[in-house]
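User: For my dataset I need records formatted as: sequence, then structure tokens, nothing else. Please produce one.
Assistant:
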Amino acid sequence: MLLHCRLPRRRPLSMKAFFSALLLAVLAGCTSTPQLRIDHSHVSANQDSRIQFVILHYTNASLERSLALLTHGEVSSHYLIGDDRDATVYQLVDENRRAWHAGDSQWEGRTWLNSTSIGIEIVNPGFTDTPTGRVWHPYSEAQVQALILLLKDIAKRNNIQPRHIIGHSDIAPLRKLDPGPMFPWKRLADEGLGIWPAANAVAQQQARFAVNPPSITWYQQQLARFGYAIEQTGVYDVATRHVLAAFQMRFRPQRFDGQPDAQTAAMLQVLNNQR
């Protein structure tokens, strides 16, 4: 005898119920993964650019060697200016990233300036020691012109002040000499890319200091005011001699022996008064 069983018939979902279930599933999916939302409508006035300084170097190596060292060595720079006929400008590191060019450094109370600077290396052998003395090597006209164009672009985009375009020897005077006495600081200053003491004011101050020379304490105070990291010992020590030599190499490259004299004092005072 065959038994016929009737299974209960399932009611089909109504369209309303179907869309309600679908909406719940979508909402559940949306809420299961939180979405980051950032409000950009409030901007603080208390900020400035990461880039505060431009630091200038020579490579003391050939172009090929400089590129190798700066791209695969233990150091780097944002830009490299070659010594080829056109003085090709290479960008090696994005300006928004930190390059490793300054090392242990100080200027105007800031330390480890890699974090706050753009580094520019220029292909130049630096110097050669000969039996008759040390010979410094000049920069080519093409390199100087390329550097001026590059600095103007960087300074404009990052609002770099002229006095914040400095040399490696400024920020590390006890261990660095670059960019050296052949570097055209005066020419950069004439282009608004640096500072230079007014000649008439220097002559007037020099005459006064020739009669009444300042103390070592005065030199150390004025050098610190200018930006150098220098201990205030009141003694003419090795560190003071190196810092004085760095200042002289930049503003009086004809003689940078680190000895205090009336002309050095005059330039230092005039530059600090021009701040």
